[in-house]
Amino acid sequence: MQVLQVSNVLLNVPSESKEDAIARVGNKLVENGYVAAPYVEGMLLREQSMTTYIGNQVAIPHSMPEYVQYIQQSGIVVAQYPDGVDFGGGNVAKLVIGIAGRGEEHMEVLSQIATVCMEEENVEKLVRAQTVEDVMAVLGGTL
């Protein structure tokens, strides 16, 4: 299952609100044909109900269960924020990884991202990545 494509990596995004960051990765999922537009609304609602910040400078926005009907195919979007995005409570994400997973693929994709991002060394490589190829070298093998 190859859900990470070169066109899904956004580097050096200027800091913005968490809502704008979630909308950015969500709209990229829409633009690249992974989800229909209402899925982005579900991503924003998910963040209102509970944070998608997982620690280690990483947030993984995804949608509420009732919005999975808008997923057309599994995909992820990686947005790198060198100056970070404030997710509240002192939590600053330098990587915002929007995901959309169909069926069982959702937990598989989430698990693979979490496994890679548990290692601080991997997160640092992603935060310092200068090219899309740098990101693909860290994430591309598993996603």
UniProtKB/TrEMBL annotation:
SUPFAM superfamilies for the chain: Phoshotransferase/anion transport protein
Q: Does the keyword Phosphoprotein apply?
A: yes
Q: Which GO terms describe its biological process?
A: phosphoenolpyruvate-dependent sugar phosphotransferase system
What organism is recorded for this protein?
Alicyclobacillus hesperidum
Q: What is this protein called?
A: Mannitol-specific phosphotransferase enzyme IIA component
Summarizing the function annotation, the protein's role is: The phosphoenolpyruvate-dependent sugar phosphotransferase system (sugar PTS), a major carbohydrate active transport system, catalyzes the phosphorylation of incoming sugar substrates concomitantly with their translocation across the cell membrane. The enzyme II CmtAB PTS system is involved in D-mannitol transport.
The UniProt keywords, alphabetically, are: Kinase, Phosphoprotein, Phosphotransferase system, Sugar transport, Transferase, Transport
Q: One MF term in GO for this entry?
A: kinase activity
Read off the InterPro entries from this record: PTrfase/Anion_transptr, PTS_EIIA_type-2_dom, Sugar_PTS
Question: One GO CC annotation, please?
Answer: plasma membrane
Q: Which PROSITE patterns does the record match to this protein?
A: PTS_EIIA_TYPE_2
Q: Which domain of life is it from?
A: Bacteria
Q: Which residues form the PTS EIIA type-2 domain?
A: 2-142
